[in-house]
Structures are given as structure tokens and as C-alpha cells.
Amino acid sequence: MLKLYQIMPKEVIRILSKHGFRLVGPWKEYYLLRGNALLISELPLKITFRGRDRSVVEELRPFASRVVGGKNRVSMKLKGSRHWLVLEFEE
Questions:
Q1: How far is Cα 24 from Cα 38, in angstroms, rounded to an integer?
Q2: Which terminus of the chain has a lower count of CB atoms within 10 Å, N or C?
């Protein structure tokens, strides 16, 4: 089973957890199905988390090679990876 820490650094996961962000989208379904990727059509290169605290962006900047901001969303390309970390902010 593919583990999330194999895709993104454990420190990033700890920071997101500390700020109360939760995993959403196809990656969440993947973990609910205990890693059976055959039951999911595709796992995207974007790993999405949802939360409220915008200060997490500054803490995660050292782990990103590129940051693209929007009104309620920030996308970060992880260093040394082809995956993007997407943070969606709730009002």
C-alpha cells in the first residue's frame, strides 16, 4: 500500500495535522479503501487538504519549489517530487 509519507515529507504532514487540515478528494478515498488503487480510476498528482488557518502557507514554503496562490486555494509543487500539495481554505 502506498503511504502518504512516501509521496510528501513527514514534516509537511505534521505541520498540516498541527493546523487541523484534513485530506479530501481521491486520496482520501484511496485510504478509506485501504490502498486498493484498483478501485479508484486514477490518483491525481494533486493531494488536497482542507482547513482554515492560512498561516500554514508560510510554514510550508521551505518544502515547495513553486507556489501558486488564489482566493481560497494555494497550490505548492513539492521539492523533489512531481506532486502538488493543494490547500483549500474554508471561510
A1: 19
A2: C
Q: Are 13 and 23 in contact (CB under 8 A)?
A: no
DSSP three-state, residue 77: strand
Is the four-CA dihedral 27, 80, 86, 45 of positive or negative sign?
negative
The set of residues, in sequence order, having a beta carbon less than 8 Å from that of 5 and lying 6+ positions away, is 13
SS3 category, 72: coil
Q: Is 21 helix (H, G, I), strand (E, B) or coil?
A: coil
C-alpha cell at 40: 479508484
Task: Give pLDDT tens digits for 57-90.
Answer: 999 999 999 999 988 999 999 998 888 999 999 8
* Cell 498541527 belongs to residue: 18
**Which whole-number Å values give the CA distances from 15 to 1, 36, 80, 81, 89, in the listed order?**
23, 27, 19, 18, 15
